[in-house]
Amino acid sequence: MGFVNSRNLWHEIPVPSSSPKSRSKPLVRPGAPVASVDAELADLQRQTRAQHAQERAQDYVEAIADLIAVHGEARATDLAKSLGVTHVTVIRTVQRLQREGWVTTQPYRSIFLTDDGRTLAARVKARHNTVVAFLESLGISPSVARGDAEGIEHHVSEETIAAFERFLAGRKTGKAA
User: Is 99 helix (H, G, I), strand (E, B) or coil?
Assistant: First the structure.
């Protein structure tokens, strides 16, 4: 068997044998769909792409809030170091965050969160902390839990976060969630 990519989904197809007779037949009828795409799967793929689009913005506002909490300000150079990106990448992303109403800046000054930016940063930080605490409650080391949370926090639903929180609350009180 081999695989063919159709709409970013990989589908198994037969691989022709080495006999000349089998090579003369096409693997798939020209123009025929390789496989029908499940509507629910397609919807989940769209949701994931939308979440990916928001990840960077969420990471930036969270990092800006952290820098302000620790240093009293968030400078582009500190943000670049914190996120492991270039100064140019920070400038471009901060411009996008300004257009979206999450930050304000002035030339040669720090980056400031708007009220909406502070709200988003607090929400993202809370989700992050919940995911880290949940993973650690499963016995995952703190450093691995923090690293894994960086991806998970953006992709779990509010329902899943609420379940994590119930589980953690149950562990604190000694009751099953």
Answer: helix
Q: Tokens 């709200």 map to which residue? A: 119
Per DSSP bridges, beta strands 103-105 and 111-113 are antiparallel
Lowest mean pLDDT among 22-26, 45-49, 59-63, 156-160: 22-26
Nearest CA among 48, 75, 49 for reference residue 63: 75
Q: Report the alpha-carbon distance of residue 98 to residue 105 in Å, rounded.
A: 8
Both ends of the chain: CA-CA distance in Å?
45
Phi, psi (degrees; rounded to nearest 5) at 10: -90, 130
CA angle 17, 19, 22 (to 5 degrees): 65
Q: What is the pLDDT of residue 37?
A: 55
- Please count the residues of the chain: 177
Asked if 83 and 124 count as a contact pair (C-beta separation under 8 A), the reply is no
Give the tokens for residue 87.
């100064």
Contacts of 22 (CB under 8 A, 6+ apart): 16
